[in-house]
Each structure stands twice: as C-alpha cells, then as structure tokens.
Recover the amino acids of this structure.
C-alpha cells in the first residue's frame, strides 16, 4: 500500500482499520516506518497473549537477558 504524506498525515484505509484497530505505535526501523497496532485494552491483550506462560517474571527476565547476550555475540 502506498500513501501520500505531503500534508504530514497518514491515512489508513477503512478495511485495515477495521482489521487492526485505530491506534498504532509508529516505530522507526532504519529508513522505514512500522505501524504496530495497539489494543483498545492493552492490559487485557497482554493477559490473553501470555495466559499460557507458567514462568515467573524473574525467569522471563533472565531468559530475555541471556537471549540478548547471545544475539549480541557475547
């Protein structure tokens, strides 16, 4: 999809808004912009996405740190 932003606005087609919602985070990735949908109830979305996780917050943090170090080549 190509958009014109000459007036400083991004217009998202109605069908896309219907499927993904009307709130987005705009993230810069190098020379690209990425729109990430934001749930109307972010806490409920987190609860649903992580309802099957049986690990503690500390365990998740430790795993994330280990993975980040591995990806960084340490």
């Amino acid at each position: 999809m190509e958009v014109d932003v000459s007036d400083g606005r991004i217009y998202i087609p109605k069908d896309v808004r219907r499927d993904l919602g009307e709130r987005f985070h705009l993230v810069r990735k190098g020379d690209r912009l990425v729109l990430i949908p934001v749930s109307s109830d972010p806490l409920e979305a987190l609860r649903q996405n992580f309802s099957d996780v049986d690990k503690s917050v500390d365990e998740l943090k430790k795993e994330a740190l280990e993975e980040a170090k591995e990806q960084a080549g340490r």
Q: What stands out?
A: Residues 57-71 form the longest helix (15 residues). The helical segments are 14-20, 42-49, 57-71. The first strand starts at residue 24 and ends at 29.
